[in-house]
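Quick question, first post here. What does this chain look like in 3D?
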Amino acid sequence: MYLVESKGGAIGCMLIALVFLGTWPAILAYLERRGRLPQHTYLDYSLTNLLTAVVIALTVGQIGHDKPDIPNFITQLSQDNWPCILIAMAGGVFLSLGNLSTQYAWAFVGLSVTEVITSSIAVVLGTTLNYFLDDRINRAEILFPGVGCFLVAVCLGSAVHSSNAADNEKKLVRLSNSRETISYEDETKDLENGTNKEEKAKVGSAHHLIELENKRAIKVFGKSIWLGLSITFFAGVCYSLFSPTFNLATNNQWHMMKRGTPNLVVYAAFFYFSLSFFVIAVILNVWFLYRPVLNLPKSSLTSYLKDWKGRNWAFLAGVLCGLGNGLQFMGGQAAGYAAADCVQALPLVSTFWGVLCFGEYWRSSKRTYVLLVSMLLMFIVAVAVLIASSGHRKVYSR
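> Answer (accepted):
Ran it through. Tokens below.
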């Protein structure tokens, strides 16, 4: 079994995980904006997420020979370690609920701001828990100022969202005052037939906002912003709990297993974690097929199986999420899970994709741009500080 034992290797795992974990949300948001039902997308995504964990466990988790205190993945499947398995599975439940919630929150709050709020809650709550669970191997004088940087970024992110929402409202009012139709269906027909003054809606314009509303699966016009924020905060709390539970599962700080039983290795814990993630995802999303929320249309298992539009992208998102989580846990096992929470700076990556692919903040005010840049700079500082706080764990010392 391969283990990351150096601080440099751990930091490398965390940085790669940061890119992967910041990219898969953009893919799911893209599919929703193209009109694919989120239930269909999440079922595809959760399947490849589980398969990725299985592949990692059967390859990296099987490298080398067994050791008494560090068994390979397959060897550990037959050992009596159910207390830690159940804790790992609880972590998978928390992450599945968090990811499922954010899939709906993106439509209401936006990709960038949703990721800022959820990630910052995860850092403030989860990193504090991980710091004490890790026996304080991270340097507190560096770690907690990093947490403070995330709090500042939350405030800046909220200001960005408020400013951008005001910009969008002005665009729609300006369009209405110019006596151009803002009927969703009529606007779409006009755009498609080229009867508007603009052959194609410019990204960030009022026409573009209306066109997006017509295409997307989750309709947001007229919905309360507090609904989206409530979903976002719930997701943030779920995110703050999955990493500490995984920490408990692999390091057994509560001494729940029988004396002489090896700790649950990171690959075995990741397998059980991903298995419970998948089970909860299937149960909830099959339920949502027949009893959808937020006025989404009903679907069925037959319709889901026939829906191949965008399925390859959903599969890719699951692979990226699985790889990102695996690398985060591998890095956290070596350098401390509190430092591994630096991957919660994934809004840096998600904002990049949001601006580049979705046109978020295009044609916004100078105030919005200043706040956006300030938020991103604060996140960069926060990531650097959390990485600098990394300690070094004696791997599976007993």
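Residues 194-199, 393-398 have pLDDT under 50 and may be disordered.
The radius of gyration is 22 Å.
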